[in-house]
Write a structure and sequence with these properties.
The complex is a heterodimer. Chain A is mostly helical. Chain A is 71% helix and 5% strand. Chain A folds into two domains: 72 residues, no CATH class; 168 residues, no CATH class. Chain A has a two-stranded parallel sheet. In chain A, α1 packs across α2 and α6 runs antiparallel to α9. Classes of the chains: A mainly alpha, B alpha/beta. Chains A and B meet through β1, α2, α3, α4 and α5 of A and α1, α2, β5 and β6 of B.
């Protein structure tokens, strides 16, 4: 049990010095002292100069006290499993790098794309079993990167009128994106808010736009167009990721 | 070439706008409403996060949104939820059911509905009363209790006035005397 009290009128040192605080708690008639004396096993924390809404007036002190208390509680196996989340992300990153390298070695053929699709589906199931929620970020990253490798080899030439990239340039271009997406996944898991920008770009640009775009290109071509098989996967991953991101921020 | 520059400029602008919007939106929690009784649904905020679940109970006259600034900090380390008690905010406002025990049962019903295992519960001010009501008879269902500048009702047996602490009330073998919460309207007046 933890109790955090504001301590507006206390002698110097109370709240800052442990020995002085304990002495004061044993003597004072303030409610914090009565609480501490009545429940000697409880952790009583005093925050001088805090307001009644101490989590707003002194968030860092309250957060530190809460973390010290919660992290000292016995861990159940359930939470131990949840802590694997970061490890799961690392596994997913390894998977993504592996898949990227494999795809890079594939020939530009329907067979290669089908093989990649099968790999992505298998990876999807495995990842979702391992890390479920957060893994969707990484899953989408690997999916879209693999997809992008297949489709955008000639992107600079087609869109910007520049010389098409070499295979090596293209490989590193996609590896950098992969790293960015994976870092974003980890950052979101750690609640670093700016990472949502990268994830949103991934959802709308890499997932939804790519998915719809290449389905449309196939329709216009009247048959197969590179990316036809992977476009639905990218679209679904993009929609799911967008739903997760926007759904989690909807009031 | 000019067309290419325009395309790149538009893409950068869209990314910046999307980023600015998402930066604001990402601060907000996911909201749901969970039934705790017949025709009674409580607002539950989910700030997400991973690890041990932490449930935040607001003070009197407040809603779970009162943790809006603090909860994202906590959610860096734990999965954080907030509950708006009945009669307040967007939660249902039934005519009855405002005793401490009933409000504590509401919290337990939400814990069950969310399938939370051994959460840590934090109660601010009046939320401390609900903590005591949960912690004494249901100690096996929570991992820990955190009182945030609790009201005296959180550890007052009600027999000797508000200033007297009945520590047994929060021990494992006793529980505080159930106390009816003033009507929501009166509570709000107190805090204005």
């Amino acid at each position: 049990m933890l109790a955090i009290f504001q301590a507006p009128k206390t002698p110097a040192g109370v709240g800052a010095d442990s020995a002085i605080t304990q002495r004061w708690l044993q003597q004072t008639s303030a409610v914090a002292g009565r609480f501490a004396r009545g429940l000697p096993r409880a952790s009583v924390v005093l925050i001088p100069n805090a307001t009644h809404f101490l989590f707003d007036s002194n968030p860092n002190e309250v957060l530190a006290a809460m973390r010290a208390f919660i992290d000292a509680l016995p861990q159940s196996s359930r939470f131990a499993k949840q802590k694997i989340s970061v490890r799961g992300l690392t596994n997913a990153a390894s998977f993504g790098v592996w898949m990227t390298s494999r795809v890079e070695l594939m020939t530009d053929s329907r067979h290669g794309e089908r093989l990649m699709t099968g790999t992505v589906v298998a990876g999807t199931v495995a990842l979702m079993l391992v890390t479920m929620g957060r893994a969707v970020i990484v899953l989408s990253s690997t999916l879209v990167i693999a997809y992008a490798i297949w489709l955008t080899r000639a992107l600079p030439g087609r869109v910007f009128g520049a010389k098409a990239w070499s295979a090596e340039q293209f490989f590193w271009f996609n590896v950098l994106w992969l790293i960015a997406f994976l870092l974003a996944g980890i950052a979101i898991a750690r609640h670093w808010r700016p990472a949502y920008v990268v994830a949103l770009f991934l959802a709308f640009g890499g997932g939804i736009t790519n998915g719809v775009g290449h389905l449309a290109l196939s329709t216009l071509a009247g048959g197969y167009y590179p990316g036809l098989y992977t476009a639905p996967l990218a679209l679904v991953a993009g929609l799911f990721l967008a739903w997760r991101l926007l759904g989690s921020s909807r009031r | 070439m000019n067309q290419s520059k325009r395309r790149i400029g538009a893409a950068v602008l869209l990314a910046a706008l999307g980023g600015a919007t998402s930066r604001i939106e990402a601060q907000l929690p996911r909201v749901s409403f969970i039934a705790v009784d017949a025709n009674v649904k409580l607002e539950v905020l989910d700030w997400d996060g991973s690890g041990r679940p932490v449930v935040l109970l607001a003070g009197n006259g407040q809603t779970a949104h009162s943790f809006q600034r603090f909860a994202p900090l906590l959610a860096r380390f734990y999965h954080v939820y907030g509950i708006t008690r009945r009669g307040f905010g967007a939660s249902s406002r039934p005519a009855t059911g405002y005793s401490t025990d009933r409000r504590a049962d509401d919290v337990l019903a939400i814990i069950d509905s969310l399938k939370l295992t051994k959460p840590v519960i934090a109660g601010h001010s009046l939320g401390g009363e609900e903590l005591s009501s949960i912690g004494a008879p249901h100690a096996d269902r929570v991992a820990g209790l955190m009182y945030l500048d609790p009201s005296t009702g959180a550890y007052d047996d009600g027999t000797q006035g508000d200033s007297v602490v009945d520590v047994a009330a929060v021990s494992e073998h006793s529980r505080p005397v159930a106390r009816d919460l003033p009507s929501p309207e009166n509570s709000r007046r107190c805090w204005r």
